[in-house]
């Protein structure tokens, strides 16, 4: 037997039906509200009408808004109306147990509360709609479609008048009570089968609601993040390095973040090695308990100040610079190709996110810096979402996101004389010409073209050897994952 079919989405068309639905639904709220909360509840219901394709009962939205405001789920929730319908009473009791209690005890709900508490008042209705939407999505709940204008007029009625009409509707039973009972039953059943009602995605979206304020931006961020996760699952955990073909360049002592350990003796010239940062004073010192002495002075006077050399230390790391340069023509990659779940531009950005995360996790032995050059005055919204998804790497200083032309990206990659430097063009057109090896620029730089010109991505080397783009494979999605792995093999 298959899963039960989701009922078709219904629509409330007349103003009288909307007014009755709002009045009766708000009488079913389970978390008590004050007059001060009524404004937030009304704004949250209107935000749900704008953000969601289908709405749950108004009482559900009111409960979520009040819980996010800091209220607690009472031990024995009570409604403001005497429920005359047994089916409705049973449905509301199931909603108490499977939705409200589970939501309040979800592990990540405290983080959602903390993120919500730091929001300005203007953004809180949108945050409530975001959590309500996640609750409906994870429960597989299909609600009602309601006109925002009609809903606004219904919410403008005085609260006492609205409560009186709602209690009358619930006591009388009828089609409206049956509709609400069915909605609460389906929501409770779906929530019972859901693994988690809120998770890190809601925390992330509420924390960055100033950037992800619109539904379109949240959807784009979700798609890029989902594409990155899907590609990351297909990547190997380790790849063999080919560093012997590329040489090695050590970190410089002038970099204060990579200053060697060992104190004064670690930077004293001399010894049997040229890597002076690896010379440290010996720790083979013997003394009796209770003696207080300057050990350095003692060994210096006795002429027994010894040195030993580290074979390799974390302070002797290879500098590795990677520059990703995005083509301005990528704006034309907003197309959905067959056999892949997302747009080509979304997949391209997801590929970069997955590759950068893999590099920062695996190349911990390198002094790694990654520059992502977005085209000036292009892909502005995508750049903001990209920075949000890589906020941890950017804060750590490993990743930098800038606006640069192809020429500026080439100059940045070619000017890194004391480090390994790789340049990756993410292109929709032919890549630009590179400087010759005798021009003084780009002499230590390798370049690769990641082409998104077709439904099948391809990579081929531009420098130091001119490669040929491979023939496309039969499966577009597998090709995206394999090209990401080829890119990483080339970079390590």
Give the low-pLDDT segments: 1-8, 252-285, 307-314, 438-443
Strand sequence of the main sheet, in spatial order? 7-6-5-8-9-10
Percent helix range: 40-55%
Mean pLDDT: 80
Largest sheet: 6 strands, mixed
How would you describe the shape?
Answer: elongated
Number of strands: 10
Class per helix and strand makeup: alpha/beta
How many structural domains does the protein architecture include?
3
**DSSP strand content:** 5-15%
The ordered H/E elements are EHHHHHHEHHHHHEHEEHEHHEHEEEH
* Termini gap: 49 Å
- Rg over alpha carbons: 31 Å
> Can you count the helices?
17
Structure in words:
- This protein is an alpha/beta fold.
- It has 3 domains: 200 residues, no CATH class; 188 residues; 54 residues, no CATH class.
- It contains 17 helices and 10 strands.
- A 6-stranded mixed β-sheet has the order 7-6-5-8-9-10, with helices on both faces. A two-stranded parallel ribbon has the order 1-2. It has a two-stranded antiparallel ribbon with strand order 3-4.
- Helix 13 links the parallel strand 5 and strand 6.
- The longest helix is centred in the first third of the chain and has 20 residues.
Put the structure in a nutshell:
The chain is an alpha/beta fold and 492 residues long. The protein has 17 helices and ten strands. Helix 1 crosses helix 8, helix 5 runs parallel beside helix 10 and helix 6 packs across helix 9 (175-193).
